[in-house]
Design brief:
- This protein is 40% helix and 12% strand.
- It contains 18 helices and 15 strands.
- The strands form 4 sheets. An 8-stranded parallel sheet has the order 4-13-12-11-10-7-6-5.
- The longest helix has 44 residues, at 2-45.
Length: 525
Amino acid sequence: MRKIFIVSSIVVTALLLLWSYFWLPALFGFVIIGPVIGMGIQDMVQKKQSIKRNFPIVGRLRYVFEDMRPKIQQYFVESDTDGSPINRNDRSVIYQRAKKQVDTTPFGTQLNVYAEGYEWMSHSIVPLDFHSMDHSPRVVVGNKDCKQPYSASLLNVSAMSFGSLSGNAVEALNSGAKIGGFAHNTGEGGISPLHVKNGGDLIWQIGTGYFGARDEGGNFSPEAFRKNALRPEVKMIELKLSQGAKPGHGGILPAKKNTPEIAAIRNVKPGTTVFSPPFHSAFKTPREMVLFIKQLRDLSGGKPVGFKLCLGRKSEFISICKAMVELDTYPDFITVDGGEGGTGAAPPEFSNFVGMPLLDGLAFVDNMLKGFDIRKHVRIIASGKILTGFHMIRAIALGADMCNSARAMMMAIGCIQALECNKNTCPTGVATQDPSLVRGLDIDDKKVRVANFHKYTIESFVELLAASGLDNHRKLNRHQISRRVFMNEIKTLEEIYPSIPVGSMLRDVPEQYKKSCESGSADKF
């Protein structure tokens, strides 16, 4: 028996060794590879995370590192910014609101409240009941010459063209605007079928290339303009003089992004790099510019028409104000963009060193309109890194009536600040025309996130108003925001940006503006 047992054991062992030699690698391979294949399929069919959809398996590493980051950073000195275009704290707020997640922060403030530049608003010992306030405040845009005034949300999508953004991104933004009842600025690339497909309100922007309003030579065409301006989706029209990220530079559409579809919308040759001139050909002087705005309003059937600019020479804006007063003709709104504004592509010198920052430009424009006693005719829109409810509070306290946001809206639809906007390789499908990457951005999922971000940011704004004891955003002023300007010195925005009396630019010009006012003329920039 013992011999039989030994022989049997040897035979069984030999058979097991042979089986393991030939079959175990395959078995172990299946055990390891099978789940990976399953995860890859799951990544490709899910619609909530563009990175995982475009880059199955590998894209998961992004979320692993994102989860590890706060745990690693707690061992290091924290600061307000981590060197990226939007600081870590604001990014978290945007993502949480877009995804409808818990909008709270553990363990108190993560900012250095004693650092220069730290800002805060004054609250009241007797705050108002947030729940009893208007959670959807709006402002009417349209002056005495406007026949179709528009009731606008206090927060809207800032200008981003189809071309710089993908078709899916444009459609998600416009659909989100439709859901949330706010406006979507087309950017200077013209009105595409994707802008009107879902019926969201549009602010049609016209730049120096006059896309959608040009003839074959690239000049402004009243007929082409009128055709688009009369579209029912177009609620406001914005003439772009300059943008904060590259004032005085003009726009660029890289050849890789200039698809036949985009070329047809812009009336340009596909596959070529398209440069928008840095200046307008439809007018040469402030007076001509004001009359051009009047022409646009008339051609549109009386819709609100305004202009957008990043402040440069103060005398040139004063020249525009003088032309308005002399002609008794005013834009319905002025969009003030800051030098910190974003773009898909610009020379670093322009992005970093050209253009007045938003807060400085905003305070100056508000002062000038009041100084020339024309503020009552013009609404002011603030644009330039408006990301949170506090940013809205600060902008409106400085003189804005409403705000536009671009970067936050992009992040709501999945932007991770990969900084690939100018290469047509955006991994989330937001800023690319590559079909293989665009497919990763699911419109139905992202449009809800856009609407969520808008809703909860507006609610945050209203809740801050309630905390300050104010029942209306129009009661905000520069006294209510404070800034640490030095380690032991604090000033309000009123002290940093002093207001001027209404009508003072028409009588006794304040000393700080005399030189610029003397240089300004309605007949030249």
